[in-house]
Design brief:
alpha/beta, binds pyridoxal-5'-phosphate, globular, Aspartate Aminotransferase, domain 2, 39% helix
Amino acid sequence: MAAKKPIKRSWAEPFKIKVVEPIKMTTRAYREQAIEEAGYNTFLLRSEDVYIDLLTDSGTNAMSDRQWAGMMLGDEAYAGSRNFYYLEDNVRKYYGMPHFVPTHQGRAAEHIISRILIKPGDFVPGNMYFTTTKLHQELAGATFVDVIVDEAHDPVNAHPFKGNIDPQKLEDLIKKVGAKKIAYVSMAGPVNMAGGQPFSMNNLREVHALCKKHKIRLWFDATRACENAFFIKEREKGYQDKTIAQILKEMCSHFEGLWISAKKDLLVNIGGFLATRDEKVYEEASNMVVVYEGLHTYGGLAGRDMEAMARGIEEMVEYDGIRARIKQVEYCGKQLEKYGVPIVKPIGGHAIFLDARKFLKHIPQNQFPAQTLSAEIYLDSGVRSMERGVVSAGRDPETGDHKYTELELVRLTFPRRVYTQAHIDVTVESVASVHENRKKVRGLKMVYEPKYLRFFQARFEKL
Ligand SMILES: *Cc1c(COP(=O)(O)O)cnc(C)c1O
């Protein structure tokens, strides 16, 4: 007799459901009309017409009872709200940054920091790009330069830290343009556009040393920093016994400052902030925030929003919570692989990325395979996903042609604490069905193109 295998022990969510929100089930005929009216762009669907909404994990989190209770404690004073001071305490305690200004969301903080640190003609190197981050850097007059490791551009490379910066690429840029022309190094983790891939602490240390040597500022897009911390704990030697909070603090210690969108890690629906240890930058930021957001003690937020953020910071570093989130994503990815669906590897922190190039081999990139696939999944089941490929990348400002990215992906993004394992199963079965019938799928043509961040509002027709 073969030796008995030990019983597998599963993880589960460290919470139970207290309030439910009904969702609408629709027919294929209904969805055909809905997606056509939305110009085959899932951003233009009404959320009411969506069954399982995996468009984004931004601001779609379920708050805890403790956060909701905190909403009732909003101190809605124009100036000096109690909730502001509680949030400030937690930014200091968990991110280790002495100064901070709240903003209404992440891109507002990106706007402010880009305007402060960038002079026209400067360069901003970063580990791949994020849409709003890069746009604000460009609007302030900088040229963004991707210095991520080559592995990040290969969807099947299993490197555990595909979010790393390639120090050689960074040094080459410094040699080419001179350190004075580099406004700051912009580091994010996990890297969304690479498939939710983390950077390692070791890489961060190396980048920090390089920046220090050349007197270049190092800034952190810490929007998903806790997910990055979780991967460091799981994959990097020496971190197994550290807490998420300790790893987060250590990561932040390498940066001069950071910005976040609270709509991700912080488990709330709106908010953001800018935090720094540089007093001069703080002074300028608190001047600018008054112009664009509101007084520096509310920055476009209600007191109750800041209270929910402050409480969210305490919850985001809980190991069981972050583990349940990341393991749910992993569960989805592993199920999809069983059906032979091509996905980006390793499986990332917040989302599964379908490799649309492989999925729809017969559709050329100028017929938007990822956009097409995203629409097909909605048609099949009412599951909403998002394009992350040539439409998201926009146009090359010099040639005017599409930027033909190596990665042509569809993202299934998991809101925190919202969906159950059964929802994941339904999603997997739908994607697998579309995959089985993939040869019949036709591409799209773009019929309307906005000037900025075109993926949000572009419209398409079936070819
Ligand atoms: C969401 C996000 C932003 C932008 O934040 P918003 O709150 O959507 O304005 C910036 N960087 C990263 C890494 C993000 O995930």
